[in-house]
Amino acid sequence: MTDRTKIFAMYLPQYHEIPENSEFWGEGFTDWVGVKKASPLYKGHIEPREPESGYYYDLSKKEDVAWQVSLAKEYGIDGFGIYHYWFNDEKNLLTKPAEIILNNRELDLPFFFAWDNGSWKRTWSKISGGNDWAPLQDKEQKKDGPVILIPYELGGEKEWENHFNWLLPFFKDSRYEKPDNKPLFLIYNYSSDLLPMVEFWNDLAVKNGFNGIRVIFRHDKLKNIPAELEKFNYEPQFSGWNSFYRRLKNKIYKTMGITKTKIYSYDKIWKKILRGAKKYGKDDILSGAFVSYDDTPRRGENASIVKGDTPSKFENYLKRLADISKENGKEYIFLTAWNEWGEGAKLEPDKTFGREYLAAVKRVKESQNK
């Protein structure tokens, strides 16, 4: 049993302008564009979701990152898992918030990187995998253009070392999460060709004074990830997201022209998360969790929506998961998310619930510390 399980909120650094976003989806594009334009799809559907006090922050500004850090600390968040977008030696995007944290030691919240290692592509691309950031904006693009916007290229030892050296100043920072003096690093898309890189990185970490590097892969039942590798569950996609009956029902609905929107049950997904946490027990699979989910801002009528979430339900489920994790000696829960406004998965306060979800996390953490 561990003394306590840390709750790290996954952190999207997308809310600042970069040339690539402007080129692909329009001048000044960030996720705020879709969030502001979202419209309700049915009676009682809360869209657009508006930040408390209309605070559409800009993560290229130190004061806005400082506000996030202060808020997270106030409500007991153990740290941020910052999404990392390294494509190749030439492209490493959305780095500004992490660099602000690195360069300002008073922003004293633990953090680590979670590498979303995939290409960026157009929504209408038939290429599997990768990220399509802006489906609604993609509709405005000519379909004879490039389908891959930025390719992900793993490269060889030279590229692996360049990538490691970029990460090294963060790894060396005292705020970077380093269990047993091993920098924590999540990887979202497993492939066997990553294993030589991980071994290479482990050697580099030792040469730089660490005890190695702790890499945790996203658990994916569709891929044969070696049993000896540590894994984590991303939620809500992994648990109950694509059951056979749900896929069949959605297909029938589309055929009948009733709706393109996919509706899921908050309670059913969370109960499956809890069953999974008990099932995995002391296995090397760490739990994920989620606040809520509704990607209407990105996908419009093609959205996936998890209905039935409330702050009290979230608190109850998160506490149960934290108790199970603590009993099984699991050090972390990875929570989706701190600020995924485009997917309706966020702890940050909005005009509907204020800070109730944050307060729920704080009470869960207080109960764990008793």
Annotation keywords:
370 residues; alpha/beta; TIM Barrel; eight-stranded parallel beta barrel; three-stranded mixed β-sheet; 12 helices; 16 strands
The DSSP helix count reads: 12
- What best-fitting shape do the alpha-carbon axes yield? globular
Biggest sheet character:
8 strands, parallel, barrel
The CATH class name reads Alpha Beta
String of helices and strands: EHHHEEHEEHEHEHEEHEHEEHEHEEEH
What's the CATH superfamily, by name? Glycosidases
- The CATH topology is given as TIM Barrel
* Rg, Å, rounded: 20 Å
Overall pLDDT: 90
Quote the beta fraction.
Answer: 15-25%
- Report how far apart the termini are: 15 Å
Number of domains: 1
Share in helix: 25-40%
Main sheet strand line-up? 1-2-4-7-8-9-11-14
> Poorly predicted ranges (pLDDT <50, ≥5 residues)?
none
Task: Please describe what this structure looks like.
The protein has 370 residues and is of the alpha/beta class. The protein is globular and about 60 Å long. It has one domain (6-240, 269-300, 310-368): Alpha-Beta Barrel (TIM Barrel). The mean pLDDT is 90. Helix 6 packs across helix 7 (194-207), helix 9 (266-280) packs parallel to helix 11 and helix 11 packs parallel to helix 12. Helices cover 35% and strands 18% of the residues.
